[in-house]
Design brief:
Elements lengths: L4 H10 L6 E5 L4 E9 L3 E7 L6 E7 L3 E5 L3 H12 L13 H17 L6 H19 L3 E3 L2 E3 L1 H60 L3 E5 L21 E3 L4 E5 L1 H58 L32 H4 L1 H53 L12 E5 L10 E5 L3 E7 L19 E7 L2 H13 L2
Antiparallel strand pairs: 1-2, 1-5, 2-3, 3-4, 6-7, 8-10, 9-10, 11-12, 12-13, 13-14
Helix pairs in contact: 3-4, 5-6, 8-9
Length: about 475
């Protein structure tokens, strides 16, 4: 006897968690869940999907509520007892033992005995009927696979094939995940290489400024021309020339020198940190490549075993021998031959053919859609790459030429990320376009980052930011490029 798919679907839908409370809104909407708090103005109710694997909290104004129905203590006890029964589930590919079936049926009957008027009575009775039906098959010596009952000899090759298909799928899923990881690591490595190169250019620029800073003239009032006075400061220790005729020093601009020294320390630290991160990424990339090679080998072996099993003819199942009944006559009684049952695959070939045809059509459609999506992605990638590169150049210019205010600053305005922008690991770069300034912000919140350099507040340890006065044309360009990278 086959298990009705309608019965299984009914049980799947009804064997779910109950919701203790319900709120009916003025518009007629009914919200079911668990009321977790209440004030004079509103009610907070926790709502979830039918089996409570995804939950969220919803706040409802009391002015929008028509009625509220709360769960009583007795109803709560009944609901919890019912939800405990969800642990008793049947496996579509495995029959239980007689002891397990008897135990489950006894547990369901105990629930009905304690809660005879329960709203879950119909569901429990359906489950008892299903468990008793399966028990009758097991008592006949039958086995279960794909919610179908057959002889153990019929099940064995089907189960072997199923397990090998599972192995092929598992290795294929692992392989896909590893390749996605490798692509992500490669993308991070490329971005990091570009960041290191830009930081090295900034280091060289700061070194050139310190080697030949712009000059300014400083007049000096003095009475002895051959011994002029100059304020004591490290900025005057080099690049200074005494112009006796004009009574002034010609020195390197201290403001420019100060900023160049600060930039040199900042970008040199970025270079060193980037090289360390680059080495760690290279190790991760090499390790992932080794895992991919190993998983590819495991997948090939699993596919070969599955193909070997598929190409091997399925052994003919032994016929079910019916017990003979002793005759009351002293003469032997001729027993009619019991016809041999047809194999499961023969009995169900029509359904398998129909299902296989539908699956093939779905796979073809999915394949074509994936090809179209991949082609669109490929065609748009050069434009996105060019937009990202222009954003990086604007970002680097602001970082080199912009002002870096001291302290921890709050950046208010529209955020334009570069790539993924700020990430949870403490990395990422982005722009903030505010009413007065355009900020370029480099997240600096990883464990091995130098947090002392941070001057911008984030949700983490902070970031490094430089700003320039807002320019409408530049702001529009950043916004446009940001959309183009999406």
């Amino acid at each position: 006897m086959k298990v009705s798919l309608l019965v299984l679907a009914t049980l799947l839908l009804t064997t779910s968690y109950a919701f203790p409370d319900s709120v009916t809104l003025n518009g007629g909407e009914v919200i079911q869940g668990e009321i977790v708090s209440e004030t004079d103005a509103q009610i907070a109710i926790r709502v979830s999907n039918y089996n409570k694997t995804i939950t969220s909290q919803r706040l409802i104004l009391k002015s929008d509520i028509k009625t509220v129905q709360r769960e009583s203590a007795q109803q709560k006890q009944e609901r919890q007892a019912y939800e405990a029964l969800t642990a008793l589930q049947l496996d579509p590919n495995r029959e239980l033992s007689k002891t397990e079936y008897d135990g489950g049926i006894e547990t369901f009957n105990k629930f009905l005995a304690v809660y005879p008027e329960s709203k879950f009575t119909d569901d429990i009775r359906q489950r008892i009927a299903l468990w008793k039906s399966e028990l009758s098959h097991v008592e006949k010596g039958e086995a279960k696979f794909d919610n179908q009952w057959m002889t153990p000899n019929e099940k064995k090759p089907l189960m072997d094939k199923f397990l090998k298909q599972q192995q092929v799928q598992a290795t294929a899923d692992t392989l896909q995940s590893l390749k996605q990881k490798l692509n992500s690591l490669g993308y991070q490595r490329q971005n990091l290489t570009e960041s290191i190169a830009q930081a090295e250019r900034s280091v060289k620029y700061a070194q050139n400024v310190l080697a030949n800073p712009p000059k300014i003239r400083v007049p000096v009032s003095q009475t002895t021309p051959d011994q002029p006075r100059v304020p004591a400061s490290p900025y005057y220790d080099s690049h200074k020339t005494w112009h006796s005729g004009a009574g002034e020093w010609i020195i390197g601009d201290p403001i420019v020198i100060n900023k160049a020294r600060s930039d040199l320390a900042f970008y040199q630290a970025q270079v060193n940190q980037g090289r360390q991160q680059s080495a760690a990424l290279d190790n991760s990339i090499n390790d992932t490549k080794r895992q991919i090679a190993q998983t590819e080998s495991e997948n090939r072996i699993a596919v070969a075993k599955l193909q070997e099993l598929t190409s091997t003819p399925t052994p003919k199942p032994a016929p079910i021998v019916q017990p003979t009944v002793a005759s009351v006559s002293p003469q032997p009684v001729a027993v009619a031959a019991v016809p041999e049952p047809k194999p499961w695959i023969v009995r169900n070939w029509k359904g398998l053919a129909l299902g296989g045809g539908i699956l093939l059509i779905l796979l073809i459609v999915a394949y074509q859609l994936n090809r179209v999506a991949a082609r669109v992605q490929t065609e748009a990638e050069p434009q996105r790459r060019a937009a990202r590169e222009r954003l990086r150049k604007i970002f680097d210019r602001i970082m080199v030429e912009g002002e870096r205010p001291e302290g921890m600053n709050t950046t208010d305005g529209e955020i334009i990320p570069i790539g993924k922008g700020q990430d949870a690991s403490g990395g990422g770069r982005w722009f903030v376009i505010g009413p007065d300034h355009i900020w370029a912000v480099q997240n600096n919140g990883k464990e091995d980052d130098n947090w002392a350099l941070n001057n911008v507040k984030t949700y983490g340890p902070g970031a490094i930011g430089a700003r320039i006065p807002v320019e409408a044309e530049l702001a529009d360009s950043i916004k446009t490029l940001g959309k183009a990278t999406g």
